[in-house]
Amino acid sequence: MGRLAKVLLCTVLAVCLSGCAPKEYTGQIFAMDTFMQLTVYGDGEGVTGQQAMQSAQSRVYELEAALSVTRENSDVHKINGSCGQTVTVGEDTAALLGRALELCEQTGGALDITAYPAVQAWGFTTGAHRVPAGDELLELSEKIDYTRVKLEETAVTVPNEMQIDLGAVAKGYTGDVLAAHLREMGIQSACLSLGGNIHTIGTNPKGEAWRVGIQHPTTGGALAVVEVTDKAVVTSGNYQRYFEENGETYWHILDPDTASPARTGLVSVTVIGTEGTRCDALSTALFVMGLDEGSEFWRAHGDFEAVFVTDEEEIYITGGLKDSFSLLEPYQELEVRVIE
Ligand code: AMP
Ligand code: MG
Prior knowledge:
nine-stranded mixed β-sheet; binds magnesium ion; about 25% strand; 9 helices; 19 strands; alpha+beta
């Protein structure tokens, strides 16, 4: 090959490689009480990656406006102020509420969207933390019962003395909605970081699995990574929201039976699966169930994988993660037990 031909070939290859490497579009927003980062690689069909990413951001704000428990005029706020009357909600709220009620049932009530009065009593929504007395907790626990929530199409009825909160599933649902929205626009590679929820589309721009970090509960650094494609990775941890009083720590994930922080010896549960809503629901529910019951639940269902971290720094992974889970420095000496 002549010198000129070689130079031309190299130039064509260089242009092709830089042209083929998908461009990265990143946007950060604060929504649903957390920082979110949406990263889209490459352009869609008839839209640039930037436009797709911005359209996804607008969708987050729409969902937040409907699903927020604290925002006035949200559907959830309307339901909670309905005094037992039936209210009509938007399609997103109805869709998520319907799915959440199914997941409350599947988890035997470990997930219960009517825990809100208890969440409030502990001060987790306002930041005015307090430890409710035993009789107050008993009364609160008696009011937690998702089976009393009625949903017909977009009509919702919640008994007067009860209130709901979709906080345990809203970010997972947001991941599902955004992933579908981006795919519809022709986006084939994206990583959506929605607080403790990661939702991935396709593979990373190099065509490899995404490496998603799992946080160490106390140091805040990355304890481990899981390699995933087209999956959600959702963590519920007792270090995400908590307060201390008289030497005791109280966190935001409540056991619906006691209306008090779920104490099962776990510090975090990460759930990996295709549906963000289910992963989000299960990370909360498995935290409430604890390691043994959570492992049983995985054996019975098997359509997701999980990582359990205990307060003794023990790490348990479900069988399907054997090849895709690895510890990071300086935690590589820790033992990883596999649940079969
Ligand atoms: P997550 O961070 O997804 O585990 O969700 C925790 C949030 O869901 C809390 O901040 C509460 O608002 C709410 N919550 C707490 N315990 C429960 C529970 N057992 N079932 C449903 N929602 C809960
Ligand atoms: Mg959750």
